[in-house]
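Suppose you are handed a protein chain with no further information: no name, no annotation, nothing but its sequence. What can you learn? This example shows the usual starting point.
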Amino acid sequence: MSASVSAPGPEQTLAPPALPGDRLARSTRPSGAPLGRFGVLLRFALIALIMVPVTAVYMLVCILLLPSRVLRIQTGNLYGKLIGRSVQRIMGVVPEIHGHERVDSRMPALYVMNHTSTIDMWIGMWLCPYRGCGTAKKEIVRVPVFGLAYWASGHLLVDRGNKDRAIASMKKVADLVQAKGLSIWMWPEGTRSRDGVLRPFKKGFVHLALATGLPVVPVVAHNADQYWKGTWAVTPGRLQMEVLDPIPTTGWSAATIDEHLAEVRGAFARALEPRQVG
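A reasonable first move is to predict its three-dimensional structure. Written in structure tokens, the prediction is:
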């Protein structure tokens, strides 16, 4: 006599998804003491001592490579891996990447990462694959030293205040990506979340996915705002991050953009803890 299996009744509920700390078997919160302002200032000074001469050499190389945007982008990748890693180690906020093998320079993709902390930019620079084109708002050129380096790199600058210019810039990048087999790194929220909660996603990355056919790879940072918030609030520790499975975009359509936004944002929402989903 075979046993029968009854369907779940209305009183039964599915188990909630595992919290990131349980799923990763790691704490997703800093456990150490925050740095004092003087300690942060000393670390900034050390970063400047490294960044200024390295950036000077890098900009000279970019000038020599002006005829080739692709070579400047790749040189920028090398610069980002050196400077990004240096900032992480000096500030003591070092990411532990789960699924790092999904960041593959041999397989072009559109990488999207949630943005809640000052450390995010330095992680993105370091984690972005070779032949990966970064995106940043045009105001970044005002950042001393680093802004000029980014301007010279050939990576994408987006004018958020001018929709037509922003679309034109992304169209040029889409054409370059398709022609040269490049990846793209983006922050889909458009700006940093001040409270760590996932913000609504902008449509720019969907338009790029439609134009390039690249798969979307979500890169999830857990509680990064609790490690480095603003300028001075720094608490060293191992920042837990996940690179999720690629999301195919070959079936995406401009007529269903909102559905694609929801699909990608949903992948982040399922991976993050409730505090960051809101």
